[in-house]
Design a protein that fits this description.
This protein has about 300 residues and is mostly helical. About 80% of the residues lie in helices and about 0% in strands. It is built from ten helices and no strands. It has helices spanning about 1-30, 35-60, 65-95, 95-110, 115-140, 150-170, 175-205, 225-235, 245-260, 270-295. Helix 1 packs antiparallel against helix 5 (about 115-140), helix 2 (about 35-60) runs parallel beside helix 5 (about 115-140) and helix 4 packs across helix 5. It is elongated. The protein starts with a helix and ends with a helix.
Length: about 300
């Protein structure tokens, strides 16, 4: 349940902050007349995300078992790819999110009502579709036969809406860079579990081999129906009897992704090379200027 709560909180807060930034900018600049098309765009985006989630849930029920597993596994892997891209993108742009949205809003204000609707729709719609897909995959992966995973998502979304409202009212100050770094790191751990579950689905659909080749089996030590087994499954999508392929994919994703994500921004080799190149060019220019002065 905690893992799904985190997804709802993280994804919902991103959308809430986008809405708050758009609305606050229009109010502060005296363009309250533009609020209606903004809310229309937001409403359409939310409706599309809900319809997409409902389509995934009810559409997959009409398929055969093998088709359900193949679809679920494929979409789980796609969801992990999208959420991984999203957490890296947000970590890099969190500091400049407000400026970027203000620029898009200024351009839309000059173009008219349709552009305002489209701006709000695109800003919120991307978050909504990503959230719907990843929530569906995560709830499916951590399902324990109860509504707890879905309840966790709903509570996370409600918390996000409350935090967004407090942020808008000025009652809450959020260090967005730190918030998205810590929650992003935890989300990578959750995504690793969803990825492993997706791989297991593809094995059950006979798309991948090795279903009977277990890496280990500690079901006797951690029964899946025990409270701690349920807790581990809800938080980390833990499985007491994973296949070798699942464990391999989980480790190959989690270790490098988490290491790169938590590394200080600007510490990569490309940054160091760029800095060295800039320093070299500066030295060369300085030497050329000195040569001209002495000549």
């Amino acid at each position: 349940m905690f893992g799904n709560y985190l997804i709802g909180l993280r994804e919902g807060l991103e959308a809430s902050l986008v809405v708050c930034i758009l609305i606050a900018y229009l109010v502060k600049t005296g363009r309250k007349d533009a609020l209606r098309p903004i809310w229309i765009g937001i409403g359409v985006a939310v409706g599309l995300a809900l319809a997409f989630g409902a389509g995934l849930e009810f559409g997959s029920q009409e398929l055969t078992f093998e088709a359900q597993e193949a679809l679920g596994g494929s979409l789980s892997i796609l969801a992990v790819g999208l959420v991984t891209w999203m957490v890296f993108w947000m970590r890099r742009t969190a500091r400049h999110l407000k400026t970027e949205l203000h620029g898009k809003l200024d351009a839309a204000l000059q173009m008219g009502t349709g552009a305002l609707v489209a701006t709000a729709f695109l800003a919120v719609g991307r978050e909504g579709l990503e959230t719907a897909l990843f929530v569906w995959a995560s709830v499916r992966a951590s399902s324990d036969g109860t509504y707890a995973p879905l309840v966790g998502v709903v509570l996370g979304l409600l918390t996000a809406v409350l935090l967004g409202w407090l942020f808008y009212r000025g009652a809450l100050k959020i260090n967005l860079a730190k918030f998205f770094t810590w929650t992003g790191g935890m989300l990578v751990v959750v995504a690793a579990g969803v990825l492993a579950y997706g791989v297991h689905d593809l094995q059950e659909a006979d798309f991948l081999p090795g279903l009977a080749n277990k890496a280990f089996d500690i079901s006797a030590t951690i029964p899946p129906d025990s409270w701690y087994g349920t807790l581990l499954k809800g938080v980390f999508n833990f499985q007491p009897d994973p296949t070798v392929v699942q464990v391999t994919v989980w480790a190959l994703y989690l270790i490098p992704t988490l290491a790169i994500f938590l590394a200080p921004i600007g510490s990569g080799p490309s940054k160091r090379l760029a800095k060295q190149k800039a320093t070299t060019e500066t030295d060369e220019k300085a030497q050329a200027n000195r040569a001209q002065a002495t000549g």
